[in-house]
Amino acid sequence: MQLRELREYCKRRGWEIEGEYVDAGISGAKDRRPELDRLVTDAHRRCFDAVVVWKFDRFARSVSHLLRALETFESLGIAFVSLSEQIDTTTPAGKLVFTVLGAVAELERSLIGERVRAGLRNARAKGIRLGRPPLRTFGTAEIRALRRDRRRRMSFGALARKYKTSVWTAFVLCRHSKSSNSKGRSRRP
Q: Alpha carbon of 151 to those of 133, 137, 157, 169, 177: distances in Å?
C-alpha cells in the first residue's frame, strides 16, 4: 500500500522514479541500514532530485537522525517529501517545518551539552577522578629520572617507551615539573 501511494504521488507530480529504497524487515530505529546507506550514497552522486517517504518514522526514528539526513539533502539540493505528514521542503510551509525541526534539534543538543558539563562539574566537586586510569603509577625517583631525561632533550615518545607509559602521561609529568619549578618565570623543560 505504501509503495503504491508513493508511486502515485510521484506520477501526479510528474517525477520519474530513479529507485526504490526499501529496508524490508530492518528496524527504522537503526541509523545504518543497507538501503538507507545506498540512498545516501546515491544522493551524494546526485542520482535524484527528491526523496519521497511514506512517513518520517519509516525513514528515521529519531529527530537527530532525521535532521542530519534533511541537512544532507538540503546541502545537496535534494527535496524531501513525507507523504503522510504532508511535508514538502520545496514549499514554504515545508521549509518552515524543516527550520523548526532544526531549531528543536539545536536546543536538544545544547541542553544535552549543559547536562554533561554540569555532571562533570559535579563529579569533580565530589573528587571523582575523570578519564581513563593511568597505564601505571610512578614513584618520586622515577618521576625525577623522567624529568631529567626530558631536560636532556629526550622526546616525549622516547620517554613513553623508556618508562612504559603513554606520551600524554610523560608530557603531563614534565608539565607539572615546569609549573611547580617555574614560580611564574618562563623556563624550558
A: 26, 21, 14, 16, 11
DSSP track, 27-89: -TT-S--HHHHHHHHHHHTT--SEEEES-HHHH-SSHHHHHHHHHHHHHHT-EEEETTTTEET
Backbone angles phi, psi at 45, to 5 degrees: -85, -5
Crossing angle of the two packed helices 167-182 and 140-151, in degrees rounded to 10:
90
**Better pLDDT: 14 or 97:** 14
Q: Is the pLDDT of residue 148 over 90?
A: yes
pLDDT at 182 over 60: no
pLDDT-based confidence at residue 177 (cuts at 50, 70, 90): low
CB 53 within 8 A of CB 59: yes
For residues 48 and 24, the answer to whether their CB atoms sit within 8 Å is no
In the block, cell 530492518 appears at 26
User: Which superfamily, per CATH, for 2-105?
Assistant: Resolvase, N-terminal catalytic domain (3.40.50.1390)
Residue 89 cell numbers, joined: 521542503
